[in-house]
UniProtKB/TrEMBL annotation:
Belongs to the avidin/streptavidin family. SUPFAM superfamilies: Avidin/streptavidin (SSF50876). This is Avidin. The gene is Avd_2. It comes from Steatornis caripensis. Disulfide bonds join 2-82. InterPro entries: Avidin (IPR005469), Avidin-like_sf (IPR036896), Avidin/str (IPR005468), Avidin/Streptavidin-rel (IPR051764). GO terms for cellular component: extracellular region.
C-alpha cells in the first residue's frame, strides 16, 4: 500500500508535505518549489487535494492544487498516482497544468503551461 501522507522531494529538489489523508480521501499540505528557493523566496504554498481509494491490489490516484500566493498570481493542478517499486520505495508520478493570470482575453493563449 502506498501512503500519500508525508514529505516528498522531486527531481528538481522541490519539497511537498502532505498531512494525513482523511477517511474521505481529502488532504492538505504545503509545497515549496525549488524555483522560489533559488529566487530567495522560502515561503511554502498551500495545497489541497483528494485521493481516490484504490480497489484491492491497486495503487491510489490523486489530484491536488497549489496556490502560489506568496510570489506569483498562478495556480497549478496536479494529477497522479502513487506506486511502490520492487525495492519498497514509494513514488508519485504526476502531470501538472499551471495557470497564470493575464490582463486580457487576448492574452489567454499564453496563460497556461
Amino acid at each position: 500500500q502506498c501512503q500519500l501522507s508525508g514529505l516528498w522531494r522531486n527531481e528538481q529538489d522541490s519539497l511537498m508535505e502532505i498531512s494525513t489523508v482523511r477517511d474521505d480521501g481529502d488532504f492538505q499540505g504545503k509545497y515549496l518549489t525549488r524555483v522560489t528557493i533559488a529566487g530567495g523566496c522560502t515561503f511554502p504554498s498551500p495545497l489541497k487535494g483528494s485521493q481516490q481509494q484504490p480497489s484491492e491490489g491497486g495503487w491510489p490516484t490523486f489530484a491536488f492544487t497549489v496556490r502560489w500566493d506568496k510570489f506569483s498570481n498562478a495556480t497549478t493542478a496536479f494529477a497522479g498516482q502513487c506506486f511502490v517499486d520492487a525495492g519498497g520505495k514509494e513514488m508519485l508520478t504526476t502531470m501538472w497544468l499551471l495557470r497564470e493570470a493575464v490582463g486580457s482575453l487576448q492574452e489567454d493563449w499564453k496563460a497556461t503551461r
